[in-house]
Automatic annotation (TrEMBL):
InterPro entries: EmrE-like (IPR037185), Nuc_sug_transpt (IPR007271). The keyword Membrane applies. It comes from Ambrosia artemisiifolia (Common ragweed). This is CMP-sialic acid transporter 1. GO terms for molecular function: pyrimidine nucleotide-sugar transmembrane transporter activity.
Length: 329
């Protein structure tokens, strides 16, 4: 399968994720424990990867699977980074408002490019760096008017701790993605074996979060497994399937493409979500949204198009034709 097909599917699924989550609410609130969604999504990804791995193992020759502990022990690290990132997110929101946080979140586009260069030793051309910065500008422009009805007057009036935590959050998000790509390309193991390791630890960490939530609440509502499916509807299950399928597509891109493709997919998905919200909800289109979409499309063209299509290079003239012709006097 071509990477651009997977990237397009990722864009569509990611853009529908927020819409499905909104539709799963009843009178503006969740009737289910939202913390169970990531856990069930991890279980879904683990089951799908296990089935595909089992099918590959029945073939001859069997797929490559590294089982050495020194390799397996690296797979919990992305889950640990995401766990820290989630806590930093909550800490950041105690200092800045939601609009400021969403705008600052676009820093992960640039930090992904920087870490992509530093840790994976992938060199980007000057034109590609300009495209990445342009993507960050475009996504920010589309959110400038308060990401909805709120005002952005407080964008530059938050405490310095909020901005520092926001930068840390962007760096952690980029680091998790770049490190996951490093793991996926570290050896020639089959994708499904790598997924099984990633999602096993992901399920364990999400289960730990559910236990922690019960402990903090004093087990007032009983253990999490007793209320795992409470309040679930068809739309809620679609949220789980959407989140799980998105994760599987991301792992494919990490293995066979790279983080920059994923960044573009998720950024375009954010814009597509805002456009769809105009038709599905009460979201009003703004000039900033239109300008942001135009800038992001320009960035997409700059990054992936061959340079020859972007710059009119002078046509080289063969030396035999350009040399002056000597005449006898």
């Amino acid at each position: 399968m071509q990477w651009y097909v997977v990237a397009s599917l990722l864009t569509l699924l990611t853009s529908s994720q927020g819409i499905l989550t909104t539709l799963s609410q009843t009178h503006g609130r969740y009737n289910y424990d939202y913390a169970t969604i990531p856990f069930l999504a991890e279980i879904f990804k683990l089951l799908v990867s296990t089935i595909f791995l089992w099918r590959e193992c029945k073939k001859s020759p069997p797929p490559r699977m590294t089982t050495e502990w020194k390799t397996v022990r690296l797979y919990p690290i992305p889950s640990i980074i995401y766990l820290i990132h989630n806590n930093v997110q909550f800490a950041t929101l105690t200092f800045v408002d939601t609009s400021t946080y969403q705008i600052m979140g676009n820093l992960k586009i640039v930090t992904t490019g920087i870490l992509f260069r530093l840790f994976l030793k992938r060199k980007l051309s000057n034109l590609q760096w300009m495209a990445i910065v342009l993507l960050a500008v475009g996504t920010t422009t589309s959110q400038v008017k308060g990401c909805g009805e709120a005002s952005c007057d407080s964008l530059f009036s938050s405490p310095i701790q909020g901005y520092m935590l926001g930068v840390l959050s962007a760096c952690l998000s980029a680091l998790a993605g770049v490190y996951t790509e490093f793991l996926m390309k570290k050896n020639n193991d089959t994708l499904y074996w790598q997924n099984v390791q990633l999602y096993t630890f992901g399920a364990i960490f999400n289960m730990g979060r559910l236990f922690l939530d019960d402990f903090r609440g004093g087990f007032e509502n009983g253990p999490w497994w007793d209320r795992l499916f409470n309040g679930y509807t068809i739309t809620t299950w679609l949220v789980v399937l959407n989140l799980g399928s998105t994760g599987l597509l991301v792992s494919w891109l990490m293995k066979y493409a790279d983080n920059i493709v994923k960044v573009y997919s998720t950024s375009m998905a954010m814009l597509l979500t805002m456009v769809l919200s105009v038709f599905l909800f009460t979201f009003k289109p703004t000039l900033q949204l239109l300008l942001g979409i135009i800038i992001c499309i320009m960035s997409l063209q700059m990054y992936f198009a061959p340079p020859s299509t972007l710059v009119d290079l002078p046509v080289s003239v063969p030396a035999s034709q350009s040399a002056p012709v000597k005449t006898d006097s």
